[in-house]
Amino acid sequence: MKVGDSAPDFNLVSDEGKKVSLKDFLGRKVVLYFYPKDGTSGCTLEAKEFSKLYEQFKNENTVIIGISMDSVESHRKFKMENNIPFILLSDPEGRVLKRYDVLEEPVNKEAPYRSVVRTTFLINEDGKIVKIYSKVNPKGHAETCLLDVKSIKA
User: What is the tens place of the pLDDT at every residue in 96-131?
Assistant: First the structure.
C-alpha cells in the first residue's frame, strides 16, 4: 500500500458495539491509526495526545479512528479510563491489520503473539491515502498529523 492508493474499506465493531465502515466517512478526512495494545504506556500516550487535539481535528473535518486487536470491552474500558472522544475499533483476528500491512507475524513459531506496527494512515475526503507514518513514536505524533491534515486541500 502506498500514497495515492484508495484506502481499503473495512467493517469492524466499535467500542460502542456498532459496526463501522471506512466508507461511512467519505467526504471527511480520516486519521486511521493502528496501535499495539490498550493500556500500555505508548498507546495511552498516543491516545491522550489525539484526545487533546480532538476538537482541532474536528474543526478540520477530520475523524480519528484507532484500531487494535483488543476486544470491544477492552476498548470500552480504555476509552472510559482515558476520556478518549474518538472511535476505537476491534480487529481481534487481525484481518484489517493484515490488509493494511501493519501486523507483524511472530519471529519464531514459539512466539505466542503477533504484534501491531504502530502506523497511521492519513486519508483524504475521497478515500485516498495521502500520508503514511510507519513505526510511529507516539510523543508528538498527533500534532504532526494535525499539521498534515491542515495542509490537505479539499
Answer: 999 999 987 766 566 555 688 889 999 999 999 999
Q: Which domains does the chain have, with CATH numbers?
A: 11-151 (3.40.30.10)
Count CB neighbours of 89 within 10 A: 24
Cell reading at 143? 500534532
Strand partners, 115: 104
Q: Is 130 exposed, middle or buried (0-12, 13-18, 19+ CB in 10 A)?
A: middle
* C-alpha–C-alpha distance, residues 79 and 5, integer Å: 31
133 three-class SS? strand
Q: Which long-range contacts (CB under 8 A, 24 or more apart) does 98-104 make?
A: 99/8, 99/10, 100/1, 100/8, 100/32, 100/34, 101/1, 102/34
| Nine cell digits for residue 84 | 478518549
Percent of the chain with pLDDT over 90: 73
> How far apart are the C-alpha atoms of 49 and 119, rounded to whole Å?
15
How far is the C-alpha of 105 from the C-alpha of 63, rounded, in Å?
Answer: 29
- Residues serving a catalytic function are 43
